[in-house]
Write a structure and sequence with these properties.
By secondary structure, this protein is an alpha/beta fold. It has helices at 19-34, 36-49, 66-75, 88-96, 135-144, 169-179, 190-200, 218-222, 234-237, 243-257; strands at 56-60, 80-85, 103-107, 120-126, 146-165, 204-215, 261-272. It has one domain: Rossmann fold (3-Layer(aba) Sandwich). It contains ten helices and seven strands. The chain has a seven-stranded mixed β-sheet with strand order 3-2-1-4-5-7-6, sandwiched between helices. The structure holds S-adenosylmethionine. Pfam families: Methyltransf_11.
Length: 273
């Protein structure tokens, strides 16, 4: 299925990836799911969504399905999770990992959902809106399919909050500036805009929590931050000659001396329809 409104950043067009790159991105999603800082973000979202037995929930942009499987366990018995992603290859990866919960896997575009109005008790949408061209259209769709009184829970990165210490500040700034729009999505500040967008839609009981993820070692940061991940292929960087090498030299030194630090805020914003 060809979604109507996508930017062409990696997660916006997973089906167009060469197989080795696709496998790397799915492995990256799974690595993130296991990372304690992402678990902390998800714990905050879990408290905000409050999944309960018998509910019907939507995981919009479900990726490899880790959250959908956890939600399915939480809504059992009697509940159901619809795990939706525009990428057929990603949904196939999610299906391969299915653990028996009540999950229906569907392809679809979050900006144009082929789902009925008012049919979900809650929606989880994690790190998807930063990849779509018009987040308000997508949020409108998520609200449309949620029943009155149901909860919409949005999680998104604020790439503008990314900061490093222990490395050359000018070089870090150059790298971050260069990576934005290449390894990171074009809508860099999506996380901080979520609250405003839900206010605009007239939702109530809005709970907005900025969760600042803290990475005191390069290996830990590399799981979430592509610009610290030496596994990201050289060709994806598109940096001027020598820049990548100078950067990793800095990162490795800072890691070895214990001085490396990176922080990134991910927002969790939930509201009642
Ligand atoms: C960064 S991944 C996050 C996946 C998952 N939510 C997680 O947190 O592990 C972004 C996901 O959004 C999906 N996606 C991107 N644009 C989409 C769209 N317009 N409609 C539905 N899914 C989309 C991608 O295929 C990918 O699986």
């Amino acid at each position: 299925m060809e979604p109507a409104q996508l930017d062409r950043t990696p997660f916006a067009d997973l089906d167009a990836m060469p197989p080795d790159m696709f496998a790397m991105l799915v492995a990256a999603l799974e690595g993130m799911s296991r990372h304690p800082e992402i678990r902390r973000v998800r714990h905050t979202a879990w408290q905000a969504l409050r999944p309960a037995p018998g509910q019907r929930l939507l995981d919009a942009g479900c990726g490899a399905g880790d959250v959908a499987r956890a939600l399915a366990a939480a809504v059992a018995p009697g509940g159901e999770v619809v795990a939706l992603d525009y990428s057929a290859a990603t949904l196939a990866a999610a299906r391969e990992r299915h653990d028996g919960g009540d999950i229906r896997y569907v392809t679809g575009d979050v900006s144009n959902l082929d789902l009925d109005d008012d049919t979900f008790d809650g929606v989880w949408c994690e790190r998807v809106l930063q990849h779509v061209q018009d987040a308000d259209v997508a949020i409108g769709e998520l609200i449309r399919v949620t029943r009155p009184g149901g909860r919409v829970c949005l999680l998104d990165t604020d790439w503008g909050s990314l900061a490093f210490d222990g490395v050359d500040a000018g070089l870090a700034q150059t790298i971050v500036g260069h990576m934005h729009g290449r390894l990171t999505p074009r809508q860099l500040d999506m996380g901080r805009t979520l609250r405003r967008r839900l206010v605009g839609y007239g939702l109530h009981d809005i709970a907005a929590t900025p969760v600042t993820c803290y990475f005191p070692e390069p290996a830990s940061a590399a799981v979430v931050l592509p610009m610290v991940n030496p596994e990201v292929p050289q060709e994806a960087w598109m940096t001027p000659a020598g820049l990548r090498e100078r950067w990793f030299d800095q990162v490795d030194r800072a890691g070895a001396s214990g001085e490396f630090l990176a922080v990134l805020t991910i927002w969790v914003v939930a509201a009642t329809v």
